[in-house]
Automatic annotation (TrEMBL):
InterPro entries registered for this protein in UniProt: BACON, Galactose-bd-like_sf, Glyco_hydro_43, Glyco_hydro_beta-prop_sf, Glycosyl_Hydrlase_43_Enz, Ig-like_fold
PANTHER family in alphabetical order: ENDO-1,4-BETA-XYLANASE, PUTATIVE (AFU_ORTHOLOGUE AFUA_2G04480)-RELATED
Source organism superkingdom: Bacteria
Name recorded for this polypeptide: Arabinoxylan arabinofuranohydrolase
SUPFAM superfamilies found in the cross-reference section: Arabinanase/levansucrase/invertase, Galactose-binding domain-like
Keyword annotations of the record: Carbohydrate metabolism, Glycosidase, Hydrolase, Polysaccharide degradation, Xylan degradation
Amino acid sequence: MNYIINMRKGHGIFLGLLFLVPLLSFSCNKKQVAPQPQFTVSSAQVVFESEGSSSNVSITSNGNWTATSNSSTIWFTISQASGGSGNVTLKLTASANNTGAGREAIVTIKASNGDATQIEVSQPDNQNLLAKFAMVSPKLFTNNGNPLLDFMFTADPTAIEYNGRVYVYTTNDQQQYDTVGPGGKNNYGYIRTLVMMSSADMVNWTYHGVINTAKLAPYTYASWAPSIESRMETDGKTHFYMYYSNSGTATAMLTSTSPVGPWKDPLGKNIVDTKTPGVDVDNPFDPGVLIDGQGTGWLVFGAGAEKTPYLPDNARIFKLGPDMISLAGSISKIPAPYFNEASDLNFINGTWVYSYCTNWDARNVWPYSNIAKPSAACISYMTSKAPLDSNSWQYGDNYFRNPGENVGDNVGPLTNNHSHLFTFQGKWYFAYHAMYLQNYFNTTGGFRNVGIEEASVNTANGVNIPMINATFKGPSQTQLLNPFVLQQAETTAGTSGHVKFDTAGIVGNMVAKGQIDKQVLMVRGADFSKQIPSKFEARVKGTGQIDVYVNSLAGPALVSLKCDVKNWTTLSQQITQKIPNGAGNIYFVFYGDGFLFDDWQFE
């Protein structure tokens, strides 16, 4: 009986314990499912000191979370946008800072329970402009004058002096480059414009835009190798006569009463082509025009299949009519040894001087014992006192070797050769092209640029032209630039290489276009010796900024001119810093997508 009672008693205790254990278990589990929430973020601020730099942010959470940025443009990346419980390390990485301007954003880390933490992300202004623009041009941080324009490809130069300036006209290789890209080849097929530029000092060049031959003369397949002359006519105006290659098939021409246009086509057809009597060459192109001391016009041209390598018999000359748009007589031959193309003509002390580019053939025939054989694709010259008499022409010498031979500076690989000999302010100069900029534009497609060298022409005993070498240095500055008179933004001695210009509605006038990326324009040899500036002003439009520096891009800007206007406006700012007395280079660093910069002046 006791045993039974004890068993029942024990059983009761056992049942009681069974009942109690779940209660105890329930109580313990209740504490575990409701712990204190865990959500921490290690950083409240991230500062990127340089492009491409990274910063780590640690997140500890016992739930899910998301990471978002309020930046409207993607200028940094977050290694992951969401995660779960545990410890996670996010990496924030800055992208390239194309403008160099300071950037800010907020990154929000939000937990699933509603808790959130914000991180301030920023990058300070990048003022290391010297490093940014270190490898953009052979001119920007040097005293080099070549190539004349460092922001576009140009070739086949001609030049003329007018009202204290030299005007240079070229083939627009940039049009070909823009069409085929850096990986394409320059076969000249897409070039249907000619480039205009001018200078008063031989180092600061004003870009005047292009002559649209495709619009002016629709029969022009492609436009290359211009040649220009001018003459005062009976109407009291100076008339400009521009001849150019209509691809390889003919020579066309345009006229104007201004060196920058507007231009017009007075003939509506080629002035010379294969149907012209007496031409007798396959390629009547690469014209060279001359008005001699008596006011008479002459035109030389030619190229094509060789009769023999030594005397290809493809160089031609004729006299132009008084109107400069007609032939005044028959076409004569110039017996130019190893002739290829690129005819040019000068009149020096009563002597006609014909220059041309030689061919690439071996020099197996050479009858002159006292004159060296011309090198391949060099510039040689001949002289005559009676240019229509073929027998009167005498070979002079080779006076400019192919730039690719690196006689002088290494200005690029071998190329075709095209030149023009001219005077400016009583001094001789030689214009040519070489492949100066291909490395800077990341191309090997054969895109050319015009350079100029100082030249010597000896006339003591006939006409003799000593050898000229291609250089980066180029000509010396003939006069200092006056920063206290209105100067055009498209006047430059060096740039950041990829500056863009647009028409301003006035013939021959261009404006610099801002970009998201900072660009720089430089003018050389500004004269601050007679006056220290107190104010800077610029004509601008749109939203952007111009920072002005003198002599160096290091240190604070002399002026920071901010613009936010819809119409053309002249803005100004007082100058508080002192600048060195004397001549200096002025740098204009500008940016702003849609921002336009027309002209500037110090006071």
